[in-house]
C-alpha cells in the first residue's frame, strides 16, 4: 500500500521521508525528462540525434558503477554529510549541463550528476531504514518514499516536451536547481547524522566489477556510433568479461567480498540478475527510440511526443497493485512469461506504423507496453529478493540495484546500436529510410525480448514471494 503521508514516530523528523522521497523524484524525473528533449539538444549542439544516447548512458552508467560504494560512503562519512554532498553534486551537475556547449561537455556534466545521484537516493533510504525502529513504520515510510518514484516517470516526458516546446532544453536541467536548494536547506535541519566508522569496502572487488561494467558498456556504445571496429569492440568486451572472471576468483578468496558468491546459490536471485540484463536488451531502449521516432519521422513537437509517452508510465503505475496478487495466483514464472510475451508483442506492433498512424494507436500500444513492463520487472525484482536469507539481504539489494542500472545502460546502447546498423552512416530524418530502419529495429527488439524470456523457464513452477 502507498501512503500519502509519512508515519509519525517520536524522535524521528517527519521531514526525513520527504527528503528521501524528493531525492527519488529528482532522479526518476531526470531519467525521463530528457527523452523528449534529445532531438532539440542535438540540433543545438550540432550533433546527430543518434549520438545523444551518450547523454543518457553516461548518467545511468555512473549510477551502476558507483551505487555499490554508496552504503560505505554513507557509513564512513555519515548520512547527513553524504546527502548534502550528493545534493550539491547533483544540482551543480544540472547547472553545468544547462551551460554545456558541446556533447563532450554534456557527457562530463552528466557524470557529475550521476555521482550525486548514486549517493543521494541510497543515502536517503539508508537514513530511513536506520531511523525507524520497527518493521511496520519502516515499511510505511519506504512505501511513502516510493510514491514520487512512480510519479516522476509519468511527468518526465510531458514536462520535458513542454519545456522544450515553449522555452528551451536548458530548462530541462535548471528545473532541478530550486528543488536541490530546498532539499539542501531541509537536509541541514532534518537529516540525521548516522555513521559507522568501522565500515569497510572491498576495494579490489569494486575496481574489478567497475572495470568490467565500463569496458563492456564503452565497447558497445562506441561500436554503435561507428567509432570502433569489430576487432577492437570484441577485444574490449573480452577484457570486460575477464575482469568479471577475476572478480569471481577474488571473491572466492576474500574474507568480505563486495558481492559474496554464495548469494548466487539462490536460483530466483540469479534469474533476477540475468533476467534484468536480457529483458532490458529488448525493452530498455523503447523510451528513447520512441521520442526520436515521433519527432524525426512524424515531425511531432516535443510536447506532443511527451504526452503520448505518458501512457507508458501511467500504465506502469496502474499495474503496480496487481503484481503481488498475480504472483500469488499464478506464480512468478507464469507472470514473467506472459508479461514478456506482451512486451514483445507491443514492441512488434510499433513496426506496423506508418505516416497515417493515429495517436490512439500509439497510446494503445504504449499502454500495453507499460503494463507488461511493469508486471515483468516488478515480479522479477520482488521474486529475486524475497527468498534471500538475512545475511545476504544487503548485498543482494545492492547487487540488484547495480544490475538494474547496468541493464538499463546496456538496453539503451543496444537499441541505438541496432538502429544505427539499420540506418547506416547516412541519416535522413524525414525519409522513407527512417521508417524502414525503425520498423526493422522494432522487429529485432521484439524478437530479442521474446528470446530473452526463455531465461525465466529456469524458475520453478510456482515460486512465490515470501
Automatic annotation (TrEMBL):
MF-aspect GO terms: transmembrane transporter activity
Keyword Membrane belongs to the record: yes
Spans traversing the lipid bilayer: 50-71, 83-104, 141-163, 169-189, 201-220, 226-246, 258-279, 299-323, 335-354, 360-377, 398-423, 435-459
Residues annotated as domain Major facilitator superfamily (MFS) profile: 16-464
PROSITE patterns with a match to the protein in the record: MFS
Gene Ontology CC terms, in alphabetical order: plasma membrane
Any Pfam family matching the protein: MFS_1
Protein name: DHA2 family efflux MFS transporter permease subunit
Lineage of producing organism: Bacteria, Pseudomonadati, Pseudomonadota, Betaproteobacteria, Neisseriales
